[in-house]
């Protein structure tokens, strides 16, 4: 099974931590041991190569059971065989009746290309949720979330959880790299940042247009070294 990880750097009691995989208590999804078929309710193009997918849970009165730091595994049968991929939901953990994903369509992506052809009412099998780490509010004074491309979804999930939790005083900086200014989930991210003084976002665009007013370039090893040096001085 493929593992998608994001870098979570904590200030104060600084550290990077991981926990063993586990399946939290669930409602709308079957956990780690089973599969369930969910119907596509709707899909919408959010960038030139990414879509937002909304799937209906089998019981409209329950939530999916996802937690911050969790993902699900999707399974479809294609002419080339069965394909499985992990995806991080972007819906709220307490959202009832639905589960949402933002997924980039890759030219050679067997599952993402298949998903992009789905129509409302079509079904996909899911397993999970499965947690890759356990987020504890207020464990760190500040965190930096660093990612790029389709890797934004687990970072967005954590950013949203921090901003929307009035009892979590953690400061969070999202540092995100994109090849173009057609940035995945940008509207949602900007709305979160505007709504809270706990969060900031820094976009890096490597193939920016002339009128791009943000940062240019890529997040590389040199940039990450500078971040680590900054942490040591704080």
Automatic annotation (TrEMBL):
Coiled coil: none annotated. It catalyses: 2 Fe(III)-[cytochrome b5] + NADH = 2 Fe(II)-[cytochrome b5] + NAD(+) + H(+). Keywords: FAD, Flavoprotein, Membrane, Mitochondrion, Mitochondrion outer membrane, NAD, Oxidoreductase, Transmembrane, Transmembrane helix. Pfam families: FAD_binding_6, NAD_binding_1. GO terms for cellular component: mitochondrial outer membrane. GO terms for molecular function: cytochrome-b5 reductase activity, acting on NADH. Its EC number is 1.6.2.2. This is NADH-cytochrome b5 reductase. It comes from Sungouiella intermedia. The lineage of its organism: Eukaryota, Fungi, Dikarya, Ascomycota, Saccharomycotina.
């Amino acid at each position: 099974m493929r593992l998608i990880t994001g870098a979570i750097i904590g200030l104060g009691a600084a550290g990077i931590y991981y926990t063993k995989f586990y399946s939290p208590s669930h409602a709308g999804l079957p956990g780690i041991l089973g599969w369930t078929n969910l119907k596509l309710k709707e899909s919408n193009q959010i960038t030139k190569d990414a879509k937002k997918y909304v799937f209906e849970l089998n019981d409209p009165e329950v939530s999916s059971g996802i937690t911050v730091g969790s993902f699900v595994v999707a399974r479809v049968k294609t002419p080339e065989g069965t394909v499985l991929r992990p995806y991080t939901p972007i819906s709220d953990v307490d959202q009832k009746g639905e589960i949402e994903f933002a997924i980039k369509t890759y030219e050679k992506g067997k599952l993402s290309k298949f998903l992009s052809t789905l129509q409302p009412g079509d079904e996909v099998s899911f397993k999970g949720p499965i947690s890759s780490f356990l987020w504890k509010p207020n464990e760190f004074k500040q965190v930096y979330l660093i990612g790029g491309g389709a890797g934004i979804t687990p970072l967005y999930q954590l950013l949203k959880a921090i901003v929307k939790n009035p009892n979590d005083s953690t400061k969070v900086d999202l540092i995100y790299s994109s090849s173009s200014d057609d940035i995945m989930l940008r509207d949602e991210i900007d709305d979160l940042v505007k709504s809270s003084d706990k969060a900031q976002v820094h976009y890096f665009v490597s193939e920016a247009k002339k009128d791009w007013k943000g940062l240019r370039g890529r997040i590389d090893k040199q940039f990450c070294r500078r971040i680590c040096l900054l942490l040591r001085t704080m």
